[in-house]
Amino acid sequence: MTVNRRRFLQAATTGATVLAAGTLGAPPALAAPGGFPDYRYVRTLLRPDQLGYDPTGEIIFPCVRGVYDRLSSPIGRYYLYYAPHNDPGGICLAYGDSLEGPFTEYPGNPIVANRWDPHYSVPHVSSPHVMWHAGQREMWLYFHGDNRTTRLARSADGIHFTYDKIVLSTSMLPAGATEASYARVFPYNLPSRGARYVMVFMRNITADRRNISWGWSADGRNWQFDPTPLVEPQAVGAVNLSGPHLLERNGNAYVVYHTDKGSGGNILITEVGADFSRRRHLGVFYDSRSAAPESGRAAAPCFGTDRGVPYMIYEAGERLGGVIAMARG
User: Fold this and answer.
1) What is the pTM of this model?
2) Which stretches are transmembrane (predicted)?
């Protein structure tokens, strides 16, 4: 048992819930905080050195979506979006028929580049998050470029996108914000705010400390943002936080996010309640292993279920030097 897992078990006596959770073909295992599956690394899905589009030798921020029951003629059951981060970046796609892999690189990558006339020309675009918009029956892509700006593009097939608009920028946030990126958007009802969607993202400030922030929207296009961070790094013993993802369980909302490697390199979890008013820090959600490919860092998780089995797809390894990996719950 690792040190961080022991710390989690000790923390359970102060509020975190420990449940028995079985996986197919495996004995019961401890659940993660909040009763979520206890994900375990299985294999690497994508490596930069095996990709045809590889301008910088690094990839980050996976987002996986089941499309077999949503798109009319998908090229695979699952679409896995990812990107290099360093200039020029580029939003990329891989596809496969199982979350276990294998995934095949789309030959037309990048599907969104750092120049899109007449809408923008920026050093890089990265951090793709795709949301299925049921009302519009479209795949909505949120991505950043540059680090101060998050944009929206829309697609009927998940491959060919039409530019929409800027949805988040540092100019929309309190003074002192220097970055607004790594955003993920989810359908989530907040009746008190007239909202049907929630955004979680990383905000950097002039002190060079990255927190997790959030906003809400009635339509997924026009947003309001809370001036107060959702999770401050000092509240969870970290210097920088990033890569947030929203999870729901038993009527409550939770945000998972990762710390910088110097603060442990793990994925943590905070319960925010049904209306995002709670701040209950539950500790380690996923404990990065010292062995490769994680090498002490797991980051930017996204989640999916394939034939009833839960999966987590995430960055494994050094920032800008890792791979896209898969863990099974």
Assistant:
1) 0.90
2) none
